[in-house]
Amino acid sequence: MSDTTNESQTFSAESYFATQSQPPSLAADIQGVHEFIQRQRQANRCVVLVTSGGTTVPLELNVVRFLDNFSAGTRGATSAEYFLKAGYAVIFMHRQFSLQPFSRHYSHTTNPFLNFLEVDASLPSSSTIDSAYPYSHDPAPMAPTPQITVTLAERARLLSVLRAYKAVHEQETLHMLSFVTVNEYLWLLRAVSREMSVLGRKAMYYLAAAVSDFFLPQQRLSEHKIQSGKGSLSIEMDQVPKILKPLVSEWNPEGFIVSFKLETDETLLVPKAQQALERYGHQVVIGNDLHHRKYRVVLISPAAQEDAAKQSNGVLPKYDKFWIEINPNQPSSHPKEIEEDIINELIKRHKTWIESA
Amino acid sequence: MSDTTNESQTFSAESYFATQSQPPSLAADIQGVHEFIQRQRQANRCVVLVTSGGTTVPLELNVVRFLDNFSAGTRGATSAEYFLKAGYAVIFMHRQFSLQPFSRHYSHTTNPFLNFLEVDASLPSSSTIDSAYPYSHDPAPMAPTPQITVTLAERARLLSVLRAYKAVHEQETLHMLSFVTVNEYLWLLRAVSREMSVLGRKAMYYLAAAVSDFFLPQQRLSEHKIQSGKGSLSIEMDQVPKILKPLVSEWNPEGFIVSFKLETDETLLVPKAQQALERYGHQVVIGNDLHHRKYRVVLISPAAQEDAAKQSNGVLPKYDKFWIEINPNQPSSHPKEIEEDIINELIKRHKTWIESA
């Protein structure tokens, strides 16, 4: 797949959008976002864009093989619920088939919903009805379908999920958008950000999706399935442009922007997060390490002037570190979720950001 | 990641298993399979191994990025249901989080189950109970949790899914096994096949998983997340060994083996399927093309002697082609699924295979 006449190049955000095709569904998707944002403005709500799940990089035009980033979408789906609970309107921009708010509690693998449904025996089943009318020549009356109910053990938990789900649907404060490829992700992010700019400081970005750092420009994609049997496979990929840069400086300079850094080497966490903040100049980087991310994260943000002045040694810290930690041993019935504390802290900071306008 | 001192090589099945580590959960998984097969033998049932979903190829030891093959697992999950309906016991060896029999009807994305649950208003809710006891100084009696029921519109369909699901659980004819990486898939396939060999001709293999053709040997994996910022990414991958060869010739020579060929170029379908049959000498290759796979497939098998003799032109066909096709325009309420016809045809052939022993 590598081609000497078509070598790898470096893409800026500008050259990326100038050379890579816009997804066909973009216009319709953005129309929906536009209307959603209008309604939230009228209701005077803050709006947060939550991105969630991994992106794929197709290696073939007819996608069979692709490069993927690991993410079930737990962070994004869980966080979206806490934003909704706090009164935010949420645009949930997620990888297709990744976890979603509310339904995430009932994964087909770990907690399949069919397990706690039962056929209600107190209502006559169709066969009982049929045998009750054996001598009639009239057609048997339509047998009522037996009711299906939820087992007592699961009822209380499901009820609280279901009520929150139905309330959100009634208030229309959750808007779903999905992507698969990194190209769809980038085009959507740009268009949604531009739409959100009318919200000024009331717009928050919570960029939890695991976005690929590398991609294969469509100009170098193989049309059909790469045939095996020709020995080893060699892939040369280009860097995905750093999209936070235009997001912060052009698409929505007033937005409160939270990005994520995932590392597998915990010693890289803080320096990498500080580097990102330095490079893009946004509000918060949440650093998390693959193995402890469910109970420990660090929020890195530019140091407040007053805090800096308090430092007695005269060396002004450039960045604040704020660790959020919960007990890793949570009861399985009512586990505390770290996202609850993360969202509470962010909402507090977002409020300050809005007031300091 | 490419390394001149550690160049790509060609793996046979033998050298693969000699150099790539066995997954830690293998022994426990196989113990479960062993007991399942014992029970099915006592019940004199045929057992089919259904593999389903895509495999991943990790690019890092701490998996963040990986190469993936496209597959939601629809073919495997749907087929497993029809095998169960026909009285087969099913070992469902699937990619973690891919679709599963029965719950597949209620995808969180296309048909979320929370949409058809409702809180039953005929039972008093807890708040009504609380206000009914405002003057009592005794603690209010435990408020009963309201019942949750299924909407009338969805009830009939869910009832048939739920009854089939519960029947299968009662009869214990479905055994679940999951994998993520291509390495886990290969080790499981070998071990399960060896366990199934005690079933002789009553064992069927329905290998619908989308298995990667390429992998990165663990000896060349990067320990931590590959850092971007160093320009483009270059990956050199080796070929996955052709696992059908030892499956047919060593692990279970008596098994009835059905493999799949997926192509994006329909003209390659029949020649590729014939080539596979010629190379491995098993019973059936199902050829399907990415865009029409939901309503058209072709079964390629060695030509029967009697059919061959009937040919008047004297040239004996080496392979039979058997197309299965359904109308692509199916009603959304009760769509006909092509897997029903595929499984019926295979079960007929499996019966002949058993009788011809």
Report strand order across the widest sheet of chain A: 7-4-1-8-11-12-13-14
Q: Indicate the overall shape of chain A.
A: globular
Biggest interface goes to: A-B, 69 and 69 residues
Please summarize the sheet with the most strands of chain A: 8 strands, mixed
Oligomeric description of these chains: homodimer
- H-E string of chain A: HHEEEHEEHEHEHEEEHEHEEHEH
CA gyration radius of chain A, whole angstroms: 25 Å
Strand content of chain A: 15-25%
CATH architecture of the largest domain in chain A: 3-Layer(aba) Sandwich
N-C termini distance of chain A: 51 Å
Number of strands of chain A: 14
Protein name (chains A, B): DFP-domain-containing protein
Domain DNA/pantothenate metabolism flavoprotein C-terminal (chains A, B): 188-293
InterPro entries (chains A, B): CoaB-like_sf, DNA/pantothenate-metab_flavo_C
Organism (chains A, B): Rhizopogon vinicolor AM-OR11-026
Q: What is this entry, summarized?
A:
The structure is a homodimer of 357-residue chains. The first copy, chain A, is of the alpha/beta class.
What can you see in these coordinates?
Two copies of one chain form a homodimer. In chain A, the strands form four sheets. Chain A has an eight-stranded mixed β-sheet with strand order 7-4-1-8-11-12-13-14, with helices on both faces. Chain A starts with 12 loop residues before the first helix and ends with a helix. The first copy, chain A, is globular. Chain A has 357 residues and is of the alpha/beta class. Chain A folds into two domains: 1-106 and 152-226 and 233-254, 3-Layer(aba) Sandwich (Rossmann fold); 262-357, no CATH class. Chain A has helices at residues 13-19, 26-42, 74-85, 126-132, 152-171, 182-196, 244-251, 269-280, 305-310, 338-355; strands at residues 47-52, 56-58, 65-69, 89-95, 117-119, 148-150, 174-179, 203-207, 214-215, 233-239, 256-263, 284-289, 296-302, 319-325. Residues 1-6 and 123-141 of chain A have low confidence and may be disordered.
